[in-house]
Amino acid sequence: MTAGWAAPGRGAAAPAAGASVDWVTGVGLVVSVALLFSISGGMLWLVGYNYDGLIGNPATKIHPSTYILVLVFTWRACTYGNPIGYCVSVADRRPASALMALISIMLLVVVVARGRPGMAGMIDTFVAAAMFVMMLSEEDEKTFARLQGVLHAVMTANALLALFEFATKTLVFPYRLDGVVFANDLRSTALQGHPLANATITAIYVLALLSGSRSLTTPVRLGLIGLQFCALVAFGGRSAMVLTLALGGIYMLVHGFSTLRSGRVNLLGAALAFILAALLPVVIALAAYYGFFDALLERFVSDSGSANARVEMFELFKHLELRDIIIGPDIDLIETLRRINGLEQGIENPIIRTVIYQGAFYTVLLFFGFALFMVEVARRCHPGIWLPMLGWILLLNTSESIASKTTLLSKFVLICLVLYRPARAGLRRPQTQPRASLS
Predict the structure, then answer these.
(1) Which of 121, 127, 198, 261 could lock 192 by a disulfide, CB 3.0 to 4.6 Å apart?
(2) In a domain, 310, yes or no
(3) How many domains does the chain have?
(4) Considering the domain boundaries, does residue 433 fall inside one?
(5) pTM for the structure as a whole
(6) Does 274 fall in a domain?
(7) 8 - beta bridge partners?
(8) Pick from 64, 74, 76, 131: which is nearest to 102 by CA?
(9) What's the rounded Cα separation, in Å, for the pair 60 and 388?
C-alpha cells in the first residue's frame, strides 16, 4: 500500500486548510459550479432531462451539478486515503454544514417512508449546499480564483441574455413544467430558469458586488452593478428590486459618509461617481422613452395574485387539527385546500409551506440546522457579508424558496464564500519538523 492510501495516523495527513487540492478535485468543483449557475431546467428539457417536472424518471429530478459534486467529493475522499477519515475531517472543520447534511438525509428517509413530496428537494436544496461548504473548507487558492472568474462570467452572461430576451420578447430557454411553457409570462428566464429565481440570485449578486468582490476594480464593479440591476427589471421580481434599492442605497450612503469622514477619498472613484451621477438622468430618460420601465410598472400594478396568496395561505390552518399541524396532514387534503383557496401557484413562504406539507416538528428540526448553517457560512466571510445575508433572509420569505426543490441555497453560499473570502484567512502552511541538531 502506498503512502497516499495510508490510514490517518499511519502516514496520511489530514487535508489542511489552504493546501492545494489535486487537479481533478479543483476542476471538478469548477465544473460543478459552472453547471449550477448556467444550466436551467429549460435547457435540460431540450436534451430530454425533465428536471423541473413532476413526471418522468426520478433520477432526472436531481440537478447535474449535484451529481458532479458527489463524484468530486467521492474522488477527494478516496484520494485522501481513508474515505471515512476525510468525511470526519471536513465535518470537523464545518460542523454546522455536516449537521445540516445529516438532518436533511434523515428527513429524506422520513419523506420517502411517508410518501410525501420533497425527496429531490432535500438533496438539491440542502445536501448539495452543505457539501459545497465542506469541500471549500480546504481553501485552495487556485480553486477560489477560478470560481471567482466563473461566477462573474456566468452572472454577466445571464444578465446580457436577460436583456436580450427583454428587448426581443423571445425567451431562449423558457421555464417549463413537464414540457409546458407558461405562454403568458414573458419575463426573462436567461440561464437561471425561473424569473423569480433569477431575480433572487441577481439581487444577492448586486449586494455582493457592493460590499464584497474586493478583487475587482471600482469601475468594473460599478459597471457590473448597473448591468445586473437592468437585468432585475427584465426578471420582474418586485421584492428583489425594492430590497436591492433599499439595502444597496443604505449601504452606499453609510459607506460614503464613512469614506468622507476618514478623509481617504479616491480621486478617480470620486470623478467617476460624479460623471455617472450626471449621466444618470439621461439614461433614465432614454430607458423610459424606449419603454424599459413599462414591464416594471405593469408588474407592480398586477401581481398575478401573489399578495392575495400570502394572505390566503394562513386560511389553510383553520382546516387542520393540532395533530396534523405537528406531524403533517394528508397530502390530498392539502392539495384540495390549496385549490379551494386559490393557491395553485404555491404557498409563498418557506416556513408555512414546510409546516403545511411536512409538519411543525419536521420544520423546526430542518430550520434549526439551516440557522446554524447560515451562521457558519457568515463566520467564514469578511464583515461585509451582512448585506447579502440580510437580503437573502428577507427574500427567502417572499416565495416557497428553500421549502421546495431549488438550487438557490447552493448559489447563495457559493457567492458568499467566493466573493467574501477574507484576506485574513490566508494559507495555513503545514508545520515542518524541526531539523535534527548536528551536535
Answers:
(1) 198
(2) yes
(3) 1
(4) no
(5) 0.83
(6) yes
(7) 12
(8) 131
(9) 31
